[in-house]
Amino acid sequence: MATFVDRFGGRRPGQLIRAEDWNDLVAALDALQAGLEGAITTLQTEVAGVRTAVEETETKVGTLTAEVDALQASVGDLDAIAKAHYRVNLSASRTSYAVGDEAVVTAQLRSLTNQPLTFPGADRPFVDFVTVWGHFRPAPGFPAAEAAGARAISVRVDANGVARVLLRDDVGAELGDGAHESMSTALKTQVGGVAVGEAIMQASTPQEAQQTGVFGILGGAYDSKTSGLVQYVDHYYAGYGGKVAGGLIKWGGDWEDHRAVVLAFARTDADPLSPDPARGIASIQLTFRDWIGPFVFEYTAPVQIKKDIPEFRERLALRFTEDYFTSYRNVTTEIEDLVKDDRGLLGRVRDYQVVHEALDGVAPGKPQEIVDRVTTTVQRAVALQQTVEPAMATTKVASGKAALTALSDSVHEANVDVTAAVAEMALLGGQVEEVSTRVGKAEQTITSLDTRVQGTSSQLASIDAGVEVVTQKVNAVEDLYGADVRKEFLALKGTVLDVKAIKDHLDLPS
Q: What distance in Å separates the CA atoms of residue 354 and residue 314, rounded to the nearest whole number?
C-alpha cells in the first residue's frame, strides 16, 4: 500500500503539482488531521483513565502500606510467640517392655522449624509428663518432686532443652526403688544367651516362653528369695493372682500387653496455679507385657506341684499316731515346718497345695479310721489357709498361719475339753452312785416307816372302836346319872373327839 510520502513526495524543482494531486494532498492532510485529533482525544481519555487508575493505585498502595506495617508488627508478635513455643520431640529407649522393666522417656524442645535450641540460665522451661497407665520416677540428673505411683511429673529441661523421666508399670507402683532395681536385675538373667526380659518379648506366646525355660529361671529366682521378684510376684498375686490360680483368668494363647500413652506438655514453669498454656505438645505409645500372670499359672500348675509331693507325703506320714488328737497336732506342726513363713505369698499357697495333695495318698500304717479323720480335717484347714493367705498379705492384723493354727488350737482345746468332760462325767457318775445308795437307804427307811404307820393305824382303829363303844356308854350314862357325872363324861368325850381329829389329820386309814 502506497504511503503518503510515496504518493505525494519525490517531486523535483520546477516540477508542477497537478490540481488533483493538490486536492488529494489537502484531503489527505484533512484526514490525517482528523485522525490525529481522534487519536489525541482517545489518548487523552485513556490518559485520564490511567491517571484515575494511578490515583486509585496510590490510594490502595497507601492502604497496603499501612497494612504491611501492621502485618510487620503482627509478624513481630507472631515471631515472639513462635519463639515462646516449641516443637516437642518425644522418644523412648524402645516401644515394648516386660513388666518389671522401665522405659526411659525423653522429651527435647526444639524450634517450630525443628532447629536445636539452647536454654542458658535458670529460667529454663519445664515439661509435664502424663501417662494413662504406669507411673513415673525421676531419671538420674533430672530431679523432680513426685509421689509414689505418680501418673504425672514435671521436669525442668537442661541447657539443650532435654527433659527425661523413667516410666514403670502399674504392678509395682507402690514398691520401692530397691524392688524395682532387684526386679530389673532378675530380668537381665541369661537364658540361652538372651536376657530373660528379652526372651519374654521375643516369645510370641506364653507357651513359647515356657518352652524356652524362661519361667523355670524365674521360678528358681523366686524360690531363692530374690527380693524384687518375690515382691513383684506377691504384690501381683495379692491383687488378683488368686483368680489366676483358681482358673478364673487363663492365658490360652496370647500375651496381655498394657498400653501406656505418654503425653508431654512444654510449660514456662511448674506452678499449677500459673495461667500458662502449653507451649508444645507431643505423645508416644509404649506397651508393657504382663508375664507374671502366665508365670503364676505355670508355677502352680499340677506338673509343678507333683514334683514335691513324695517328700511332703513321706514327712507327713511319720507324724501319725494311734490317737486322733495327737496325730492332728503332729501333722499340723509338720505342715508349719514344711511351709516356711519367709517363703513368699505365692510360694506358701503353692506349698499348701502340695500338702493337700500329699495327704491324699498318705499311708502311715496306722488305723485307717484315724488316718481318714485326720486327713479330712487337715485338708480343710489347709484349704482355708490357702484362701485367706492373699487377704492376710494385705492386712496388718493377721500374720502367720492363722487359719491352720486356729483350727489346730481349736482341736487341741476340744481334746482338753473332752478329757475334762470325761473326768467330770466320771465324778458325776460317782456322785450318782452315792445318791443312788442314799435313795436306797431312804426307800428302806420309808418302808419301815410305812410298816410302823400301818401298825399305828391298826392301833388307832382299835382305839377308835373303843371310843365308839365308850361314846355309846357315855350317851347311855348321860340319861342315867346326874349333872356332875354327865359333865365328866362329856370331858372324856371331848378327848376322844380330839384323838379322832388327829387321826383324820394324819390321813390314817380308819
A: 12
Cβ 87 vs Cβ 48: under 8 Å? no
Residue type (1 letter), 273:
L
Q: Give the residue from 244, 266, 297 where a domain finishes.
A: 297
> What does the alpha-carbon distance between residue 159 and residue 227 come to, in Å, rounded to a whole number?
39
Cα(288)–Cα(131) distance, integer angstroms: 13
Do 71 and 195 lie in one domain? The reply is no
Determine the residue type at 43.
Answer: L
Long-range contacts of 460-468 (CB under 8 A, 24+ apart): 460/499, 460/503, 460/508, 461/509, 461/510, 463/499, 464/499, 464/500, 464/503, 464/510, 467/496, 467/499, 467/500
Does 101 share its domain with 180?
A: yes
What cell was used for 435? 445318791
119-172 pLDDT, tens digit per residue, is: 987 789 999 999 999 999 999 999 886 655 589 999 999 999 999 999 999 888
Could you tell me the residue range of the domain that residue 448 belongs to? 428-505
Is residue 486 assigned to a domain? yes
Q: Hunting for cell 481522534 — which residue is that?
A: 38
Distance between CA 380 and CA 46 in Å, rounded?
115
- Give yes or no: residues 154 and 244 share one domain: yes
Distance CA 106, CA 88 (A): 10
E strand or H helix at 258 = strand 256-267
Domain count along the chain: 4
The cell for 346 is: 505365692
Instruction: Report how far Cα 93 is from the mean position of its chain's Cα atoms.
Output: 29
Can you list the alpha helix ranges (DSSP code H) found in 237-367?
A: 242-245, 292-299, 302-305, 309-317, 324-338, 345-360
Q: What is the pTM of this model?
A: 0.65
Asked if residue 407 belongs to a domain, the reply is no
Does residue 406 sit within a domain? Answer: no
- Considering the domain architecture, whether residues 108 and 240 belong to the same structural domain is answered as yes
Domain boundary pick from 261, 280, 297? 297
